[in-house]
Amino acid sequence: MDKKILDKLIEAAKQGMKNSYSPITKFPVGAALLTDSGKIFVGCNVESTIAGLGTCAERCVIDNAVANGEYCYNAIAIISKLEEPVKPCGVCLQYIGEFAQVADHDIEIIMAGIKGKVNKSSVYKMLPDTYGPRIAGLDLSKYECKKK
Amino acid sequence: MDKKILDKLIEAAKQGMKNSYSPITKFPVGAALLTDSGKIFVGCNVESTIAGLGTCAERCVIDNAVANGEYCYNAIAIISKLEEPVKPCGVCLQYIGEFAQVADHDIEIIMAGIKGKVNKSSVYKMLPDTYGPRIAGLDLSKYECKKK
Amino acid sequence: MDKKILDKLIEAAKQGMKNSYSPITKFPVGAALLTDSGKIFVGCNVESTIAGLGTCAERCVIDNAVANGEYCYNAIAIISKLEEPVKPCGVCLQYIGEFAQVADHDIEIIMAGIKGKVNKSSVYKMLPDTYGPRIAGLDLSKYECKKK
Amino acid sequence: MDKKILDKLIEAAKQGMKNSYSPITKFPVGAALLTDSGKIFVGCNVESTIAGLGTCAERCVIDNAVANGEYCYNAIAIISKLEEPVKPCGVCLQYIGEFAQVADHDIEIIMAGIKGKVNKSSVYKMLPDTYGPRIAGLDLSKYECKKK
Q1: Chain C: nearest CA to A148, how far in angstroms?
Q2: Is residue B87 part of a domain?
Q3: Contacts of B141 (CB under 8 A, 6+ apart)
Q4: Is residue B56 part of a domain?
Q5: Would B121 be classed as within a structural domain?
Q6: Inter-chain contact A89–D94, Cβ cutoff 8 Å?
Q7: What's the CATH code of the domain at D73?
């Protein structure tokens, strides 16, 4: 990924983090998604007082992109207030993996610390061969990838 | 609610529905949220092949609004392709109720059928006295309501 | 419901509460389920550090009963350490409602306070006309109700 | 793991599978959990018509064990009707990882096909360094591991 786009994506994730609704853990997390069409969406964690409700920043930003008709993603960036980059949890990896199957290609995962440290991986590396819509044999032809 | 805003909100929900990711049920649902500051956000259902993942349109649109720093909502509209208006499920009512406590006021629920039928209610009526962040004694002072 | 069974059910919910895994909220909740076949199952809340994971006591106990081949429920009891009885959240009402449709009859909801106060309602009253498998037209013939 | 215990665990998972509530996907999955104290619990997938509700067999069986006061697990077995063993999804790996942190040791994952094929791994291998209660600094002293 181009350094300029990388910086822009991490900056977007930082903007998302500012809007985090996290009254329980007081641990804001931000995410930004780069679509195959070149758009950037932002997300943040949204907590709930109820066990099993609420969402992490990564799932939030994917829902945001889907709501805008974008199903195919090139990369997702995640940031918290820690110096050490945070990793997506298994729930989010599963969700990212779902849409990797929709796009039929890997999705880069960019994990950023607040002081500039960046780790890179991908959903195929972090959660290989996961179950998803393509394996389940679902018809995905309706969810076309918009291109640049 | 002003007829003009009502129409605009239902139209936005209809736009959200077009983007629904629902390869399992093939039942697209759209939602639109009117914030206290007068903005409108759109959402749709996002399904997953994994039990316990995915979201209804109502939770999607709330996450979308939170990601944009809006925590206080005046009304939410929901639409599907059925003539008969669909009701929010209990999960979504709980989530809407969570943010009713953040805003400290009721949120109107507008249920629209595809041919123009509209039912109106509110989260206080549909899920009265629900548990939430205010009852849990959480500090919500950080999540200010933006006004028009 | 027979007073003796009611007491037994609330006592079971209290036992479930003792096993609660709630390191985040430190708010243990217990539940007990009376099946149509006369069996009693116990459950408790199971929290997670991840938003959107974890379960309330009511969903826990239903999963427990399903894992044992019981799909039809007569009543569910809930208890916490508060004097005032707690109500099921919208998420749990939706889940209870799902199985009310499987059994094709209402399910009593018994809300108990720690010092003996008891409120009674039902899922049809607390979340009327909710969406579920019967409305969705799913084939439920496989999930037979065991009788006493 | 002792061959006799392995067989017993897979047999228990198979029993759990029989009780699966899966009217949507019609894809029953079973799980069995071996606790550090030597007990075996069973679970199955429990689907819901609502996106974001329902549970996989692995989360079901953990909730079942917690409801019975068991927080520390040695191994979890999973089975479906496929010849090829199924893998836990990311959501379940996260949940298993949560309790690996409670027990403070790895948990073996046994993936069984219906005709006898068995793959083995562990949650530390499949979802390394995942976020959880120990990393979050939660007090887990209350959740003692029962020993044989």
Answers
A1: 33
A2: yes
A3: none
A4: yes
A5: yes
A6: yes
A7: 3.40.140.10
Q: Which residues of A are catalytic?
A: 58
Contact A63 B63 (CB under 8 A): yes
Cα–chain-centroid distance for residue A72? Answer: 11
Of A135-139, B109-113, C74-78, D73-77, give the lowest mean pLDDT range. Answer: A135-139
What is the rounded distance in angstroms from the CA atom of residue D86 to the CA atom of residue C65? 24
The pLDDT value given to residue A147: 85
Does the pLDDT value for residue C99 go beyond 90? yes
Do B23 and A140 lie within an 8 Å CB cutoff? yes
- Which residues does C107 contact at the CB level (< 8 Å), separation at least 6? C73, C74, C75, C76, C96, C99, C100, C122, C123
Torsion sign over Cα D13, D29, D56, A94: positive
pTM: 0.97
Element (H, E) at C79: strand C73-80
Give the whole-number percent of chain A exceeding pLDDT 70.
100
Is C58 annotated as catalytic?
Answer: yes
State the CB neighbour count (10 A cutoff) for residue A25. 14
Among the listed residues C58, C83, C84, C108, the single catalytic one is C58
pLDDT in tens, D30-71: 999 999 999 999 999 999 999 999 999 999 999 999 999 999
Residue D17's domain spans which residues? 3-126
Q: Looking at the 3D structure of chain C, how many domains does it have?
A: 1
Question: Of B25, B52, B91, which is closest to D56 when you measure between CB atoms?
Answer: B52
B143 closest CB neighbour out of A21, A61, A62:
A21
ipTM of the complex: 0.96
Residue type, D119: N
Interface of chain D against chain C, CB under 8 Å? 16, 18-21, 23-24, 42-44, 46, 48-50, 52-53, 55, 59-64, 66-69, 71, 91, 94-95, 98, 102, 131-133, 135-136, 138-140, 142-143
